[in-house]
Amino acid sequence: MRKRHSFGIATIMVGAALLAACSSSQPVVDETVMLAYCKEPTTENLENLSKNYSSIINKSRKTGLKQPGVYSDYAVTLVKQGRRAEANSWFNREMSEFAASREYVMQLKRLLIPEFQNDNTIKTDSADTVSVDTESALSPESRAKAEEKALSVMDEKEKKSKKNKK
Predict the structure, then answer these.
(1) How far apart are CA 56 and CA 73, in angstroms?
(2) How many secondary structure helices (H) and strands (E) does the chain include?
(3) What is the DSSP string of 38-94?
């Protein structure tokens, strides 16, 4: 009889913990948006994914709950949209807020935006506002070299679509 009683209490405690975890106010990525981009990486799906991350960041500001990885995931979507300077700022914010992610984020910066590898500045944290294009300050040679490196890490579909746009 004792085993059933302790098993019942343990079950109730686990259920309560799960209920508390599920009802937390921490925003999460919309799985349908993520899957849509994974299934079909179109510009529209990438923009939707980026907006979803932006929304998560804005909701997190209101609740005060910060999630490791969200800033860097958002930054990756910005890089893929060509918003490299803004992405750099979000990568830097990730390293600033979550020191444990520094090595990972530095690898992402080396692969995706090598021209910003040594730039640790953080701009305003407005995820939904239109950012100023500071990338125009790059020389044409640096810009071409950076684009070439970025293309090397993109999948074949993205390479083809980017070449077709030019």
Answers:
(1) 11
(2) 8, 0
(3) HH---HHHHHHHHHHHHHHHHHHHHHT---TTHHHHHHHHHHHTT-HHHHHHHHHHH
- Classify burial at 39, counting beta carbons within 10 Å of its beta carbon; exposed 0-12, middle 13-18, buried 19 or more: exposed
- Token pair 């079950």 is at which residue? 11
- Using an 8 Å Cβ cutoff, are 65 and 28 in contact? no
Which tens digit of pLDDT belongs to each residue from 57-67?
998 888 888 88
Structural domain spans, the chain: 28-165
Q: Please report where in the chains the tokens 């960041």 appear, as a residue.
A: 57
CA–CA dist 144, 21 (Å, integer): 47
Neighbours of 95 (CB within 10 A): 20
Q: Is the pTM of this model over 0.85?
A: no
Cα–Cα distance measured from residue 7 to residue 44, given in angstroms and rounded to the nearest whole number: 50
* Contact assessment for residue 64 and residue 92, using Cβ atoms and an 8 Å cutoff: no
